[in-house]
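Checklist before submission:
- one chain only
- standard amino acids only
- sequence pasted in full

Submission:
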Amino acid sequence: MESLTEKVLEFQKTGAGLNALVDVLAPRVYQFPRRKMGWDEDACGDFYLYFQPRLLRLLGRFQDLGKPFESYLCAVLGWQLRNFARERRRGERKWSATLRLDTADPVRESAPEDERVRSYPRLTPQVLAVIRTGADRRNFLFLLLKCARHIDREKAEALAPLTSVPAAKMLALASSLAESRAHRDRRLAIFVERRNRAFCLARLLEGELRYETDPCRRQEMERRLASANKRMAMAMTRMSRVAVAPTNREIAESLGVPKGTVDSGLCVLKRKLAAAMDPDSLRSA
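Returned file contents:
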């Protein structure tokens, strides 16, 4: 059976077999962030979209130096994942500031009179300038549904014109997504309770340790304190892994579109928003 290394070398010589290589490599690239960093499905999809344009260059640069192509692929994926993680953290800080569904906005109230800006909660002129085409409005709907838990009737009516979706339908979609994540809310509540219980016990033990003079009792209390801190850290780790927002797959299913459409749509919109808010962001990334 022909190895992956042989297939890559054959592709470099003849240029044939690219589709077959992509079929083999795509699942490995997609699952890499989950195996290495425990990322969720949406983050894995974002990483694949980030890495996919680099795939052809990866195949062209491989050299047979005695190690299999899998080893080279793993090293490159590790490097690219670190770069992507830095860009993702920086990008999320920027674009998350572009849209907040809070109706109370003292900045907006003191801004110059612009009817379009005043009509929508926390939408700046830079954000409105990004939403031009039908595809932009569709991608903006994907982004709004990520905030489904915060959408009420007033916000739906204000934001509906920017999505070309009636307010009633947007509310129905938000309600459906909220119901689909009810089990995650219950799971999150369990971890929150565990964290709070461990935190209270740790603080109580810390207070008692200040006045305890018996060496044996101090040793036992220190052991219990370390255990409480460990349980608190574990609960917080598990809390961080519970998706607060609807997943891209859930949004896709609620709208009846492929998941890849939601993945790519959000990726494109985030890049546009980042560029609109900071034109130098893409050059410095």
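Reviewer check: The longest helix spans residues 69-96.
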